[in-house]
Design brief:
alpha+beta; three-stranded antiparallel sheet; 5 helices
Length: about 150
Amino acid sequence: MKAFPPSAIEIFAASYPESATKLTHGLVDHPLLALPRLVELATALPESDVEYNAGKLPIGIAPEDIPSPKLSIAETIRSIEENGSWMVLKLIEQHPDYAHLLETTLAELEPIVKARTGEMLTLQGFIFISSPDAVTPFHFDPEHNILL
């Protein structure tokens, strides 16, 4: 199953790497992205690769000022629609099923990326799970990102 329709590949090709664009994709109903599977992933990852916080934060809050979560990782995901939180599961490629999902998804974009900015050197996947209206504090990432 392809993650991106041909129109999304065309849009990506027209914009990468110079400008941001919106990409449509077919991953919304992917079984690995369903909440029960994300609970399994979150509890299988090392604690250092799971970050979760309250979602009602000021945009410019210092990391040391972020309050500690009150729920467990699993409880946070299971109640994400109501609990006012956000979380990120980092380096999902540590899990074989998610490594495959990451690799096959990025393989669809790889010819465009390789021609414009060179080989994809380190494939890393992060999954963000958030409550409605949650705020991720302002930050900069040092690499190109494809956000879906």
